Amino acid sequence: MNSAEVNRFSSPGPTAEEVCQQLERVFSSGEFHSTERGRRFLKFIVSETLAGRSEFLKAFTIANDVFGREVSFDAQNDPVVRIEAGRIRRDLERYYLVAGQTDPVAITVPKGGYVPHFEYTHHPEVPASPALSPDALKDVGSVNHERLFPRPDRSKLLIALILGTILVIAAGSLYIFPAPEPSASGEALSGTSPTEASGPKVVVEAFEEGRPVDTTFDIAHGLRDEVIGQLAKFDDIVVIADPSKADRAGTAGYALQGSIQLDGERLRAVARLMRQSDGAVIWANNYDADLRAQSKLAIQADVAEQIASAVAQPYGAIFRADTETIARQPQNGGWDAYACTLAYYSYRRSMNAQSHDTARDCLQRATQRFPKSATSWALLSLTYLDEMRFRYKLGTSSTVHPLELAASAAERAAALAPNNARVLQALMLVSFFRDDIEKALQTGAAAYAINPNDTEVAGEYGLRLAMSGKWESGCELVSSAINKNASPEGYYEVGMALCAIMRNDVQAAELWSRMSDLQYNPMHRLVLLSILGAEGKTTDAKQEQDWLNANAPELMNNIRREVSLRLQRPEDQDKFFSGLRALGIAIESTQTE
């Protein structure tokens, strides 16, 4: 049975009194490290929003009222407000990570503006949205709650860390399996035929209007157009904009449906993804917005980006559903390009030698059968590259030359589709590990510009920026990817641990590190070891060091080489090494070849 992930809301958000109490709670905490000017900034935008004046929260107003700038202030040439907003976002993120995980209200400042967002951190269960029929919800499994600007709820994990308890979470076990071969019978996923372009097809139906008023009509039609545009940025799926041309029995495997409801100035967009073959709702979500705080165009863009990301990103709703489907098919050796894509993402979730070999072999055969499949070449490049960057986990031989194989496959992909975001992602990573940092960042920027909603592109580009020394911009991208539920789970959290190390916040670094999947890659444990050394936690550090000596001794003999492959600047390497040296680990004596 497929389980659908349905997100619903309780109706009201926090009251003004609750928001003010939360702001005072944040200000009184020693873990909120904002400057006095930053506190004035946050207090001002919160107060103005609670007073119903959020539409006036522009850079000019804030610069005048908070920072005392003259009426001649030019936001284009003076970035003071934008910079302060970025600092406040980071300070709030740190506060909720370190001290505020059990607070009842979350205060955030979403990117793209200065209007704060308030939400309860724990939402009560509410009845199902009336827009979804009982029949459509028969396969619904888990229930989560998100707002227009969601923040991952990690409080249970953080509490467990504080208590010193190690939790093993197997929520993703349905998707962690050795990637299977697709059926040789030719039964294609999502109602498609087994060709190189056999990715899933999605028809975007007209969004319904809650009541016949011009505003609702305009927003519904505009939102649908935005969704189509955002989905079309994902090269792995085929978007059908005209439902009349989609054969519901087979041409499109999925239908994206939606509706718009207005209640005064409050807007609710409802979206759901239906599998055409059996009518099951495999994903649904509601998005709330305030027309007083944002324009219609801004709301349409925000909601469309989130829908597209949730539905079409790697590890998103479509890929999860199709991965389950292919897992139930006979494994008789018929190779389909899209099935190999699923095999790759299945491998990345499980990260073991068997699933890696299956994905690599599948992609090798797919590129032979479909030599013009740029995505297959790009993913094949990444599987080769992983034999180097994850070799201590996968146990790959050090005698092979995976980087050369990865470069050759990536170049083949680029010749076929130079504007494909996945292709550019592969080129970025190959260039990075070849120490061509300028080319890596240029390629990553191009990939991100093509599809900023692809969390894998955004997260990997953010990591490359950060590890190249551009920590502020890189860490912001990684943080944003995590907030959009980027996968594999735990992979990007170790990047946030590095971000915290570089700003000398070892407490936050340890929390991020323990939120990463320590079993995913021994390098994750090396990061934690450095952090524990910097904190002086020698007992905990000895446990990690003993594990690494027993399970990844070659890594412990090549620390300098492995760290320098990732952290490009000598000063960043030294900061990382200082934690290890505090434990008596002699970095200088480790191999460099």
What can you see in these coordinates?
It comes from Rhizobium sullae. This is TolB-like protein. The chain crosses the membrane at residues 157-177. The chain has 593 residues and is of the alpha/beta class. It has four domains: 16-120; 175-187 and 329-431, Serine Threonine Protein Phosphatase 5, Tetratricopeptide repeat (Alpha Horseshoe), CATH 1.25.40.10; 194-313, Rossmann fold, CATH 3.40.50; 454-593, Serine Threonine Protein Phosphatase 5, Tetratricopeptide repeat (Alpha Horseshoe). It is 50% helix and 9% strand. It is globular. Residues 1-11, 124-197 and 330-334 have low confidence and may be disordered.
Helix residue percentage: 40-55%
What's the gyration radius in Å? Answer: 24 Å
Number of helical stretches of at least 4 residues:
24
Question: In CATH, what is the class of the largest domain?
Answer: Mainly Alpha
CATH topology of the largest domain: Serine Threonine Protein Phosphatase 5, Tetratricopeptide repeat
**Main structural class:** alpha/beta
CATH superfamily of the largest domain: Tetratricopeptide repeat domain
Sheet of most strands: 8 strands, mixed
Number of domains: 4
Architecture of the largest domain, CATH level 2? Alpha Horseshoe
